[in-house]
Amino acid sequence: MTELDFASNVQEVHFGSWVLTPRRQTICDGEVEKELEPLLYKILSFLILHRDRIVPRDELVQEVWQQNYVDDNAINRAVSELRKTLKSEKQTGIVVKTHYRKGYSFILDVEIKLYNQATDEYVKAKEGAKDPKQQGLDVDELEVTADYEKPTVKTNYRKFSIAALCLITIFMAFSFYTREANNITPGDLQSVKLTLSEEPYSLEEGYFIRLVGNINRTYVAYGFQSARNSKEETHITDPDTNESIRLAEEGFYIVPITWSLDGSTLYYHRYSDDNDCEVWNVKLDSIKQVNQHAKIFSCKDKYWLSGAEVGDGQFVYTKSGFRGNEQVRSLYSIDLKTLEEYRITTPPILEKSFGDFFVTSINYKNEVKLVYSRYDGSQSTIYIANSNGERSESIATINGLVSHISTNSQLSELTWVRNKLLYSYSLITKNLKIKDLVISKDIESLININEHEYLAISKNIGYATGIFDLKTAEKIENKNSLLNEAISTEQLEVRLLATESKKSKVWFIADDSPYLLNSYAKGSVKDLYLEHENKNALVIHEKGFQVIEIESKKIISEYHDQELNVSSGARLSATKIALFLINGSLLIIDTQTNSTEYQVLDTEYKFIPFDESKLFVKSKHNHFQLFDYEAKKYKSLFQWQNNSAITDWYISGDNIWFITLQGLYKVNYKNQVVEEVESFGFAADINRINYVSENILGVTQIVANKNQLIRLY
C-alpha cells in the first residue's frame, strides 16, 4: 500500500490506545480526540506503513517533507511533537522509537480496518512482517514522472504600485479565500441562536481595523483610516463614555498592536511607505506627551504585525521570512532590554502555507498563555502554548484565516467570530461552544466589553466578478457582491452567478435578465458550470452537488452528505462527478448508480478535468501535473520555480493561467514558455480565476468597502 492509497482504502488504524482515522486525520482514545497537523499525520502514516523496519531520516526528508534537505532540528522537533501528541492518560508508553544515527521506527502492534472489508474484519499486522502483501494490502506503486524542461520566461514589464502591494498584503491577512466552511475540531458541536441588538459606536466614515482592549476593558484601541486620509491612525476610546484620544503622525501609519499585561501601556506599530518599521509604546496617562512615546524595537513586517507582552521583559510577535521564505511567518520572542530574539514556533513548510500568526495572550492560572493561528492557505488551526512556545495544544481548526480572538481572563475564555458564528473556548473545561449570531452585519472581529456586550468591526472586504479583455487589460464589466461565475463558451451574456447575502443564491442570466435557480447555505457554493448547451446548471456546494434543469428548476440529480466538507468539484463524464474534499480525498460519484469511490489526490483545493480518467492538478512546490486516477499515475507538465505562492490557476487548451502576489501569468506547458500577462494592474486583487477563453478572462476580485465600528448587546 502506498501513501496515496492510505486514506482511500483504510478506514481505521488501531494501535495502543489510539484509533487513527486517515480521512479525517484524527486520533481518538475513546475519550480524547485530536486532529493531527498535516506534517504530523504524514510522519505517522509513513511510519505505520513502514513499521516493519527502521526508517532513515533521509527517507523521511524525501518522502514526507519532499525536499532535498531539512534541518535536523526541524526533524527532531516534528518527531518530538508527534510523540507529545500520541501521549494521553490511556497511552503513556513509547509509540515512535529513535534509533541512534539510524532513524525511527513504529514499535506498536497495528490493526488496520479497510473500507472494503466487513465491519468486524481486521487485517492484523504481524510482528516483524517484512512484506506488506503478507497483510493483504494493495502494494501497487504510484509512478511519478518528474521530467520537464527548464522554463523560459517572457516578461511584460509593467511596474506595480506600492498601493497595490499594500492592498494585496492586507487582503491576504484578513481574508485570503472565499472558500469558507466551519470545520471545527474537537467533536461535533451544536449551535444556539444569540440575538443581539446593534448600534453604531462611531459615526466616522472610513475603514476600521485591529480592535484591541486592555485587560479590564477600561480602554479599547482600534486602527482607523478616514476617507480623507491615506494612512491609518490609532484611536483610543473609553467604552463607557465614548470619549476618544486620537494618535496620529504625519507620514506614518499608526496601528495598535496590544496592551501591556497590566493594561496601562499601549504598544503600537509605526511604519511608513519607505523602509521605516518600528514598534513603540506609551503609557495611557502620558499619551498626549510626545516625549513619553518610546521606540521599543525595529521590525520588518510593515503591513501586518501582531504580538504581546508575556512577562519577564519578553515580547512575542509575528515575524516573516521563516527559512528564507517571506510568505511564511513564525513567532519570535524578543528581550525588550537586550533586543536579543529567538524563534519559538516552527510551522510546517507547505506550498501555500503562511505559517504562524500571533493572535492574542491570556493570563491563566497566573501564567501567560499564547494563542496563535497556523494558516496553511485554506485553514487555520488555533493553538494555545506556554509563553516560550512549548506545550502547544490545538483547540480548533477553521477554514480561512483567524486573526482576531478576544480574551476574558476572569472567565478564562477565548472568543472569536466567523461567518456570524460566535465561538467561545473555555480553558477550564476545554470545551468549544458555538452561538449563531442573529445580527444584520458580517463581523470581522470583536471584543467583549462585559459578559453581555461587545464592540465589533464589520467586514470591509467584499467580492465581485469581473470580465477583462486580455488584449487591452481593460475591464469589460464588474458585478458586486458575487462569489463566482460560470460563463457560456458560446455566448458571454449567458452565465451562472452566485451572489452572497444571507444565503448563497445561484442565478441564471441571459440578456441581463436574472433568473433565480436555487438558494444554499451562506458561503457554501464552491463551483458553477453551465452544461448541455446551457440547459443545465451544475452547482458544487459544501455538502455535495446538484444538477438543475434551468428552464423548469427541476433537480435532475444530486448528492448530499452532511459529513462532507467540499472544497471544489467538476464533472468527469456524462455519469461521473468528482468532489475534492478539504481532507485531500477525491470523491467520485456515479450519478446513475449513486455509487461512490474515494481517491487520494496530491493537489491543493482544486482540480480541472482533462478527460474521463485524467485530471489537471497542482501539487506541492507549484508543480502542475496530469493525474490518471484509474492508473494512479502522475505526469509532470510544468513547475513554477519562483518562490512566490500561486493563489489560483486555470487551464485552457495548452496554457496554464495562474496568479501570484506579483501578477497574472500564463505558460504553455508543451514548450514551457512563461508569459507575464499582467503585473499588478487588474491582477492585484484577483482572488479566483473563473474562466479563460481566447482573449476573455473571467475572475472573482477582492473589493474594499467602508465598514463600521458597532456595539452589540
From TrEMBL:
TM segment ranges: 160-177
Superkingdom field: Bacteria
Alphabetical UniProt keywords: DNA-binding, Membrane, Transmembrane, Transmembrane helix
Record's signal peptide: none
Pfam families named in the record: Trans_reg_C
DNA-binding positions: 10-108
Domain OmpR/PhoB-type: 10-108
Listed PROSITE patterns: OMPR_PHOB (PS51755)
Annotated protein name in UniProt: Winged helix-turn-helix domain-containing protein
Organism field: Pseudoalteromonas spongiae
Lineage: Bacteria, Pseudomonadati, Pseudomonadota, Gammaproteobacteria, Alteromonadales
